[in-house]
Each structure stands twice: as C-alpha cells, then as structure tokens.
Specification:
Znf_PHD-finger; 29% helix; ten-stranded mixed sheet; 5 domains; Znf_FYVE_PHD; alpha+beta; disordered N terminus; 24 strands; Arc Repressor Mutant, subunit A
Length: 655
C-alpha cells in the first residue's frame, strides 16, 4: 500500500492558508504544541492547530486535518486526520458498545469512555473512496449519498484509536519499502510513537499480523532478536492466545533461538544441501563464530540492513593468514595445509583443538607455529573448504570442522596467503540475504521435515506455534501521570493528587478488590477545600467515563475529613485517593460486555479474538482449534463439549 497522498487530485480540497507541518518531527514537544497536560488536554491542544473538517464522518462528528510534509524534493505530503467519536453517536448502533480490542488484550474490565479519538493517515484508495475527489469537496455541506465513513474504511496507511482515558490501540500500519513516493513501515511507527509519547498516552496495544514476503515477522524477529518487529519501539508481550502466558512465550523464544547450527546442519544436509550452502555462505562473511540459529538469523538481518541498495560486497575471500609474524609465508602455508588435511581425515566431523594439534604435530614440530595458524584459521576459507571454529556449548572446548564448499564456489582458487592478492569469488547483494532468510524460514520454521521431529529439534514446531499465537503486544507510555514540575496544572493550580473512584456498594471491601479505573491527576489551588476536591474529581471522571456521567462523590476511603477542611496539610502532594460515590447510570457496569463464559481446554478464560464455539447444553465457549475443528471448516450447527457429551453417554447407560 503506497503511503503517497496526492492532494492535487482533489481540486476543491486546496486551501491556500492551511499550515503545513513537518512529518519527521510532528508530535514532538512544541511541534505543533507544548504537550504539558493530561492526555485529554493534550488532544484538545493539538486539534486547535488542525483544520476543522465538516461532514467528514457524518453529522455531529468533529474531525480535523493536518497537512504533513514528508520531504520537499521531490514534493511528498500526507494528511493526518483526527476524528472525535462520541459515545452518544455510537450508542445508536446495535453493535456491542464495549471495545473488542480492549477485551482481546485483557482490558475488558475497563469502563466505557465517553469519547474515542481516531488518528488516521489515509491512503490514496481510502481518500478516493471517502471523498470522491473529482466531484466533492471535504467541506461540501451536502455530501453525496453513499460516501464512505473514513473511520470505517480499511486500507489506511495508519489507523490508531485512543479512548479518552489514555488507553489506545494501533489498528493498522501499511508501510512499503522506501521509494520516491512511499513511506516505510519504520517511518510510520516512529510517527505513531511520537504521537503517543507527546499526547501522554497511558498504554497502547496492537495485534501483530505484520508479514514480509509471506514470513510472519513476529516469528522471524523473535528468532533473530528475541522480540517482535514492533519491539524496536518498546512493544512487549501483552497477551497470548490459547492460554499462552509470558513465561511460556519467553521459553519458546529461547528454545528456538538456541538450536545449535552444527546439529541442524548435520541433520538437514542429508536431504537438503542448499541449507548447508547458506550456512557456509554467511559463516564465511561473519567475523565471529555463529553457534545457534538465533545467531544466524540475527547476522543475516543485520547484514541486509547494512548492505547498500544496489551495490554488493564479497561473500567470501580465500583464507588470509597474517604474514606479519616470525614465520615465513612458506612455513605458514605448509602448516595450514597440514591442519586442513588433518581435518579432512576426521571425515568432516567436529574435533577438538587438541586433537587437530596432535595430528598436525606428526608433520610440523613447531607447536608455536601450529598454535598461530589454528588461531588465524577460524572461519576462513582454504581452497574448496571452510574451516569452521566454535566453542562447544557443553564441554566448553574449542572445536574445528571442515566444510566442503566447492558446490558454492566451484571455481575457487588455491590458497592465497597475501590478503592484497585475494580476489572476490562472488558478490552478495541486498536481495540475496532476504532470499536466503525466506528459504531458511520455510524449511526450518514453517515446513518442518521428519528429520526435525526428534531430539532437540522436536521443540521447533511447538515453539513456532507458541510464538505465532502471541499476537497482542502492549507498550506502556505513562502508567501514571508525572508529579514533577507544573505539568497538568494551570490557572495557578499547583497542588496535585492522584484520584480514582468506585461506586457505592454495601460490600465496599469486595468493591475495592475489583480493578479500579486508572488514577487521574487532579490539580487544585493551595487553599482548596475537600468540597472543591470532590467537585474536581466528579468533573474529571464524568468527562472520561460514560458510566460516570452523573457520578456524585460521597466519601473518601480511609480519610475522615469535613468539606471545608483544607486539602493541603491533610494529605501529601501526589498521594493516591479513592473516592466512593453514587451513580444513577447503570450502562457499562458489566465487565467487558462478554457474551458468555469462556473455559477452554487450553486454559483460556476470556475471549482472545480467536474463533470460538459454544456448547449447546452448558453454553460454555471454547476455541474451535482446541476442539479440533479446522479453521477452514464451518462451525457445526450442533456442538457438545466433551464434558456434556460424557454426561449424556453416562446417563444413557443407566437402567
């Protein structure tokens, strides 16, 4: 999906006085506004700099646009739209008012908020579908019938949504490889991260479905770096599907990263020599020994990022042994050949350094020369062979092995001692590493062969499944608002407290055990009374939550004070207070709006977004995958869970 948005096609869209902002620093403090308030205050301050759009998403829905310049030569602009969706506008819909994204990531206990803020970078296709650029202006008071709602369209470059309590979800990122009129995925993520940081969002979740050339990036980057692609911006494990928790996910990552390359190469080379060729190619390029599968994928991705787009580098050079030593080049070359022959006699198996040294001493008496050559030969090419060296992870002993690479470099030259005379045998371009990565991904991670079904390799299919089932990631930006400086306060209000509320109940102790709404920073004047504090708390929470729009504070937990008592002196600056109050509105009092009980065989107790099926007797929901209903099959009209089926069989056997 191209991220280029050509506004020139919308003739009526052009407005000469509209300000243009820099894409690369939009969202930083001071660009375009000083973000020094709460999340809601920062959003209000930001939209003041935008252009107010009319009828963009229907009557009564406020929206603003920002022209953003990506670069000037050649000219490239995108437009950021901010759409304010109020609960009153949404409540007319028959759909469940609870946020499904909150439910999936484990925030289903949060109360519904009064507002959502959509942040969108539309693509050319979504702009054309929404605005009909050839005929309709954004400001047309009578938009054509059938014009699509921008928020509901799919295929945006970026779509993120925030609830008014500061919790948000990144719904989509559609980046492309860098080009003359495109935005790359990392540019979009940096833009989104700046927005979240500047606005002082609390937590942001995403459903990681990112792919590249058919490869799931959460698996590829998990093996290479120990975290998904989004981990570059601080997104971590949020919630796993099918009952997967963070320790299980971490063990899966470690298991698949730690697969020994030597064992993997031995098993796979029997049926697939191409994998051995790829191993040898990148081992020759590396200046250190790659021991595990994680090392290999990490090196390949890092190498690809460093390669120029068009140029290439040598994939290997003939072995070069330092000649700046006390032995002549002729003696060094002779010792090298003896060591290679000793390794050939070992029939290409791994042997310890001491074994190689002892075998070579039968022909070379100078042990100092042998030690020097053994040290210099590690992971170098000699003739048609790659001399590999690595530390045995079990015995902690240095070992050597010889690999025949004549099939990779059939025209290899004889041993060349002087590095200045070395000639490159082949070139590697930026495209080659990605081709090799895709090949290894397919044959090791995706389509496991029977040779990988035993021993240490039996962990690969299970670990792969666990990593792929971990889709929901979360980044914590500001769990609680900062109490430093004068942020979040204005009009002389300098005394700050962190406050939250609960509804009045006969079982206050039980109510306190439930998850409370996030604390809000309430600012007061130094001479404020507790009556004024209660008014501020009511104002803040009424503004945020749909359920609390008529909330009235009655008492403060564990604090006995009178209404006219001064706050300052009774409580400390930054103290957390819990307020108990009454509320007439009951909408949104259920936790998460779930449609039934989830109790799956995998251990899941809540809806995680995967396909579910309900038992027709007990009405308990389970994953279709866990009850062995393939995803490509329709859900049966009648379904009985195992427990109910066993009960029926038992009852039918009674006399």
């Amino acid at each position: 999906m191209s991220s280029y948005l050509d506004l020139g096609g919308c003739r009526k869209r052009r407005r000469g006085g509209e300000k243009v902002f820099k894409f690369k620093n939009f969202g930083e403090n001071g660009c375009p506004v000083e973000f020094d308030g709460s999340f809601r205050d920062n959003v209000k301050a930001l939209v003041d700099y935008g252009h107010l759009e009319v009828n963009l998403c229907g009557n009564g829905v406020f929206s603003w646009s920002f022209q953003l310049e990506v670069h000037r030569h050649p000219p490239l602009h995108v437009v950021l739209f901010i759409v304010e969706e109020q609960m009153q506008a949404s409540s007319s819909s028959s759909i469940n008012l609870h946020c499904k994204h909150c439910q999936y990531v484990g925030w289903g206990h949060h109360m519904m908020c009064n507002k959502k803020y959509h942040f969108l970078l539309p693509s050319k296709d979504t702009v054309a579908a929404c605005f009909n650029c050839d005929e309709t202006s954004f400001d047309d008071p009578n938009p054509e019938k059938g014009k699509f709602n921008l928020v509901e369209l799919k295929g945006h470059i970026m779509h993120g949504v925030f609830h008014s309590n500061g919790f948000g979800h990144l719904l989509c990122v559609n980046g492309m490889e860098m080009g003359s009129d495109q935005l790359a995925g990392y540019q979009i993520m940096e833009f989104w991260d700046r927005l979240c940081t500047g606005l002082q969002a609390r937590k942001v979740s995403l459903n990681d479905s990112s792919k590249k050339r058919g490869m799931e990036l959460r698996l590829l980057y998990g093996v290479a770096y120990g975290h998904p692609w989004f981990g570059r911006w601080g997104y971590k494990f949020g919630r796993g599907c099918y009952g997967i928790n963070q320790p299980i996910y971490q063990k899966a990552i470690e298991a698949i990263q730690g697969i020994p390359l030597c064992l993997l190469n031995h098993h796979l080379s029997i049926s697939n020599n191409d994998i051995s060729v790829i191993f040898s190619r990148y081992q020759a390029l590396s200046d250190h020994s790659m021991v595990t599968l994680g090392d290999l994928f990490h090196f390949m991705l890092e190498l690809r990022s460093r390669l120029p787009k068009e140029n290439s580098i040598d994939s290997c050079n003939p072995a070069t042994v330092e000649t700046n030593c006390r032995w002549s080049p002729k003696r060094v070359e002779a010792a090298t050949r003896v060591i290679v022959e000793a390794l050939k006699n070992a029939e290409f198996r791994w042997v310890s350094r001491q074994e190689v040294r002892d075998a070579a001493r039968a022909y070379i008496g100078d042990t100092g020369l042998l030690d020097f050559v053994l040290k210099s030969l590690g992971n170098h090419i000699v003739g048609n062979y790659l001399v590999r060296r690595c530390l045995n992870p079990v015995t902690k002993v240095l070992e050597y092995c010889l690999e025949d690479i004549s099939t990779v470099y059939p025209n290899s030259e004889a041993l060349i001692i002087n590095n200045s005379k070395a000639k490159p045998r082949c070139k590697i371009t930026k495209v080659q590493p990605m081709k090799d990565i895709a090949y290894l991904y397919k044959h090791i991670l995706k389509d496991q062969k029977p040779t990988l079904s035993t021993g240490v390799f039996s962990a690969i299919p299970m670990a792969t499944r666990i990593i792929l089932d971990t889709k929901f990631l979360v980044k914590e930006y500001t769990e609680e608002l900062s109490m430093k400086g004068n942020s979040n306060c204005s009009n002389g209000k300098t005394f700050k407290l962190l406050c939250t509320v609960i509804s009045r109940s006969d079982e206050i102790d039980e109510e306190l055990k439930k998850p409370l709404p996030p604390y809000e920073c309430v600012c007061l004047k130094e001479n404020a009374t507790f009556d004024e504090l209660k008014q501020e708390v009511e104002k803040n929470f009424r503004e945020v939550y749909w359920r609390l729009r008529s909330f009235v504070v009655e008492t403060i937990v564990n604090l006995s004070v009178k209404g006219l008592d001064l706050v300052m002196g009774s409580v400390e600056m930054g103290q957390k207070l819990v307020f108990i109050g009454s509320n007439e509105d009951q909408i949104g009092m259920d936790d998460g709006g779930g449609s039934g009980i989830v109790d799956c065989l995998c251990g899941a107790k809540e809806d995680d977004g995967e396909r579910l099926i309900s038992c027709d007797i007990c009405e308990v929901w389970q994953h279709t995958r866990c009850v062995r209903i393939p995803n490509n099959e329709e859900i049966p009209h009648v379904f009985l869970c195992k427990q109910c089926e066993e009960k029926i069989v038992f009852l039918s056997s009674l006399p």
